[in-house]
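Hi Y.,

Following your request, here is the sequence exactly as I used it, all 296 residues.
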Amino acid sequence: LDQRLQSYLFRRAYVSRIQKVLERARQQKSSIASVDDPESLSTTARRRRLQGKPHLSQGDGPRLSELNISHLSASAAAVRQNRVIIGMPDRPSGVIDGYKLLRTKMLRRMVAGQKRVLAVTSASQGEGKSLTALNLALIINQDPNFDVILVDADLRSPSIHTILGIEPRTGLCDYLAGSANLEDILVSLEESGIGLIPNIHPVDNSAESLTGPRMRELMDSLGGLSPSVIVIVDMPPLVVDDVLAFAPFIDAMLLVFRSGVTSRADVAAAKEMTTDLPVLGCILNGAEGAKSSAYY
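Below is the corresponding structure, written out as tokens. Let me know if you'd prefer a different format.
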């Protein structure tokens, strides 16, 4: 009984802390949209572009293919070992079918809601959110009507570059520190053509970095691109407050769970923490008997 009581009190204290962070995020979102500050007005205008309809249109900004950015090639061994869909020529058809179904559902809801920034997170570690974000980016990018930029914003434990087996010289951590510009960190993955902003080192004070002026500048810059550009952001799990701190920049969210890893309590806590966030859906990895096996 004592152990159950301690667990209950711990969860209540944690949820209370999360609610405070969410309130700060709401206040920050209000400050971004303030009409009293001319600089904020400029930010608001760019945010509106970032939330424009994600389909081809004339004008507003360049497509990804029109940018002069460097190219990186993924390691064939790494992508195959880590189950990236571009590295599996003999992958089961159910894997691709599962991601195509997810793509269709996500794009339909995002287009209907004029959403362009999709955050991917999970209840805890080890649920496959980063691989899901990467594979979803790859499958969406196969649609000629869309470009995709994948941002590794898991500042505590970045992994996208490891999954792909690439060694970028700079990353999001350098941009946030002020030692790199967007053109230094945005690369194109040769095998697929997706845009990638990797992160190569953990960042101290990650929640504060995600709400700082440099991150705001980055999202403004991405918002100036063509409305056909979808931005997918790989976020840390919900056990830390980074996702809620980043909430003002999120148009949509996908929650990732894993069978045998995510507990009912984790799902309930995730549901409570994301009540006021634009969750479009959930994905269950590793479900026994699922059509796409361990991938979906």
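The longest helix spans residues 2-32.

Thanks again,
Q.
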